[in-house]
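Quick one:
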Amino acid sequence: MDNEAVVEPGIRIQTAVRAQAAPEAERQAIVIREANFFYGDKQVLFDIGMDIGENRVTALIGPSGCGKSTLLRCLNRMNDLIEGARLAGRVDVKGRDIYAPGIDVIEVRRRIGMVFQKSNPFPKSIYDNVVYGLRIAGERSRPRLDEAAEASLQRAALWDEVKERLHESALSLSGGQQQRLCIARAIAVEPEILLMDEPSSALDPLAAVKIEELIYSLKDRYTIVIVTHNLQQAARVSDKTAFFWLGRLVEYGATPQMFTNPRQKLTEDYITGRFG
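Output:
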């Protein structure tokens, strides 16, 4: 049964069922249970529970400040870098609690790659950007680095555009190419999960379409969680969608159902543009 929450005086919502049931056939890559998150004394996430399927694209939507990017950063412990930030609850990735004592946070971030809203290539060559993580991990074999660079750029749909320019500066690429380069850099270390925080919001429409096509093609190999303000993008690329409001998970379900027949009035109001 859904839980009712009072989020503002006179406003009640039915929050999504905790620990969403998933079909037995669907393997779960990420399981979140009773997650509450705080910046100092300020609570910004409230009792989040959701299962994220393996080799699926899951979109997190909601108005600015609703907690979706905070939750995304909880999934690879990026929030640990913020003083006073803390999570109460449990986040399991492939059956392992990533907040358990003794967990290697560096290894967590290797397994769970992240692509940010603004492309952030290093001031190095295209090649050096792609193999950066592998070199940090100790890989020195040039043939292996070459192979990884080509494979990653191929998967990021960028190889044909840069194969003759690998030793030019990454900063010479267009904005859309730089974002695909950042995706190639993230997948070069062979993560299991990719997190994407508004990956196409700073791009022109044509470059954004390429990113969407790339996301769709990558889910055969990776589990992808994407934060987006673009509802049309969420509808196009995701298998499941989660709607957040004021730090609470209001509704979570299959994307076609969420966009055509949402269970919650608040979800319907947001998707139809009545607020947000």
